[in-house]
Amino acid sequence: MEKIMNENSTAVNVLNLRRTFGEFVAVDNISLHVGRGEIFGFLGPNGAGKSTTIRMLCGLLMPTGGAGTVGGFDINKESESIKQIIGYMSQKFSLYDDLTVEENIDFFGGIYNVPKERKTARKEWALEMAGLKEERKTLTRTLATGFKQRLALGCAILHEPSIIFLDEPTSGVDPISRRNFWNLIGEMSAAGTTVFVTTHYMDEADYCDRLALIYRGKIIAEGTPTELRKKYMTRDVLEVDIDKVVDALDILLHNGIDAAIFGSVLHVIVEDVQTGNARISEVLEASGITVKAIEKIVPSLEDVFVTLIEVS
Amino acid sequence: MKLQRIKAITKKELIQIWRDPFSLAMAFLMPVILLFIYGYAITFDIDKISTVVFDMDKSSLSRELVNQFHESGYFRVNSYVESYKAIDPYLDSGRARVAIVIPEDFSKNIQKGYAAQVEVLIDGSDSNTATIAQGYALAITEGFSRRIRGTPVTPLIDSRSRVWYNNELKSRNFIIPGLIAIIMSVIIALLTSLTIAREWDRGTMEQLISTPVKTPELILGKLIPYFLIGFADTILTILMSTLLFHVPLRGSVTLLLVLSGVFLFGGLSFGILISITGRTQLAASQAALITSFLPAFMLSGFLFSISNMPKPLQIVTYFIPARYFVTILKGIFLKGSTLTVLLPEALLLSLFAVLIFVAANRKFRKRIE
Question: Are A199 and A289 within one domain?
């Protein structure tokens, strides 16, 4: 197995992958390529088809159509072999909450058949990584979400798999824990592990080496964060600082100006900075809203995705 | 198959059962309570039938006859009335189930050497009790007439019946061994019916099926802890039967335990099969209760003799493993049967156990449907 992986720089490769549930097309002929050691971000809003895709790649769900390999194994025929080399963390918390931290680690160590001599070391590693060294005898039920997620990650990779699939690992986790989590993912990738991660937090896209954006079952953009910015963000983004953001958004959209709320400010997409600037001020002041500042900014990936989703 | 994986699952299940008071109670308290309740409640023994007497003769002979009824232990004479009419309210209200009416000329007839008549009225609404009471009444009057005639007569045919296996004819001896089979059927099916469905309900199954664990490893790992519990329950119920209910255990205890083990394996596999099919805990536990309790109770020969059932129903009983276990339990407890005698039952029981285990393995999919 290791041999195949070393000779081949491909971790995941799928062509025209498709999955339907009755009439509903959850994943619509997508093709993906993930290189070894990459952090591959699979982004999209809720219900776009992220979990369905990841489940098919992990051998949990049979594709309706299409072909592909994970770690060199056929996703249609060799799902049990795939399960030997991957680690998977599902979207829903899936450890046993009536077991202690340590008992959960021991259980998955047994299930993944971690060799006896490595067991203690791996357990200590997982406890350290999750920051739960002192809480090893605590019932998992009582842990905070951030710690649960880290423990779940630890359990999913006890056997040091070469490819890791993480389905929305940071959903419902506070910002600091999210950052820590991404640092962990970075470390694993640096150690040669391929990480396939889904998220609906667009601001997490910059942590990834490469990205694919999925929307309504289709991949609508793919590339490195820089490529995506260049390729799809041909227009400029202006950050508009005003008091009544919600009212202002309504007025701008009503006047055919492309805008979105980003925290306490508005991001407005314009073809040309000069004329755009003038038009925004004119429209808003006509409605009695004072513009505090307008500034041209480097578009975030979130801007890119908002634009892309609007286009499709 | 990797032993390490089976061990991991077994250990995890044991911890979960240990931490769940409901599971623990179901595992250890329920069999004791069930055996206790059913052991005392279900009885076909009839004694101390409340009896009302209308003695028109009022002679020493009639008093002696009434005394015979009372002393037999089967009847308890608790009231006397002075008219036919007065009997009715007793039978109607159920205060008495039997009425003995002794005519005026009872002792006169006997002294003259004529046949004397005694009327015995029996409440037939409970036909089982009525039939038995009738038999007892007949036996008592016959004995009485033989005795007062003085000289013993030799009957033409002297039939002396001896009752084997349960010579005191205690229905408890007949019921308790079968009851063990019923209780174990229900407990083990209920216990295991939750085990797979619970993991789907809680979302832990998705993680589990993404690992390299193999289906037989998963099923065996989940079966072993419940097998241990079921085995402990078996020993517990056997001890209760012999020590509390004084049911004789005449056969080999080892054989009893081995065959119980076979039955447990099949029953647990059945529970797991239901759990796999049911997907949700609620559906699975209800299905387990219905499919284990009813057939075992009605069609295993535990209460109702299979040979008295209509033919089609008799055929159905062959597909109910509890039937073989009931035969085995009654055989070993009461008759001291050996494996040679019980071989067909033992083989069929094993066959069912293996078939159900295989079915559970084949039914389980390491996929989200």
Answer: no
Two tokens, residue B71: 């002393």
Contact A193, A161 (CB under 8 A): yes
Q: How far is the C-alpha of B317 from the C-alpha of B310, rounded, in Å?
A: 11
Give the β-pairing of B119-122 and B49-55: unpaired
When mean pLDDT is compared across B6-10, B27-31, B130-134, B330-334, the lowest value belongs to B130-134
Pairwise CA distance, residues B160 & B157, whole Å:
9
Q: Where are the domains of chain B?
A: 3-42+170-363, 49-148
Measure in Å the smallest separation between the Cα of B23 and chain A Cα atoms. 13
> Residue B31: phi, psi to the nearest 5?
-60, -40
d(CA A215, CA A222): 12
Measured CA to CA, the distance from residue B151 to residue B154 in angstroms comes to 10
Q: Which residue of A has its CA nearest to B9?
A: A107
Rounded Cα distance between B279 and B299, Å, is: 28
Q: Minimal Cα distance from A60: which residue of B?
A: B367
pLDDT value of position B158: 66
At residue A21, what is the residue type? F
User: Which of B10, B12, B194 has the highest number of chain A CBs within 10 A, making it the mutation to test binding with A?
Assistant: B12
Residue pair B353/B266 in contact by the 8 Å Cβ criterion: yes
Complex confidence, ipTM? 0.82
State the DSSP H helix or E strand holding residue A296, giving kind and residue range, or none if neither: strand A291-297
Other Cβ atoms within 10 Å of A216 Cβ, number? 16
Domain range for A246 is: 233-311
- Among A244-248, B120-124, B255-259, name the most confident range: B255-259
DSSP letter string, B332-348: IIII---HHHHHHHHHH
**B149 contact partners, CB below 8 Å, separation of at least 6:** none
Listed residue (A289, A299, A287, A152) closest to A232, CA to CA: A299
A127 and A62 housed in the same domain: yes
Of the candidates A83, A103, A152, the beta carbon closest to that of B211 is on A83
Q: Which class for A24: exposed (0-12), middle (13-18), buried (19 or more C-beta within 10 A)?
A: exposed
* Residue of B2, B208, B367 with shortest CB distance to A113: B2
* Pair (A185, A245) in one structural domain: no
Q: Note the CATH number of domain B49-148.
A: 3.40.1710.10
Measured distance CA(A72)–CA(A84) in Å, rounded: 12
Q: Of how many residues is chain B composed?
A: 369
Residue A2 has pLDDT above 50, yes or no: no
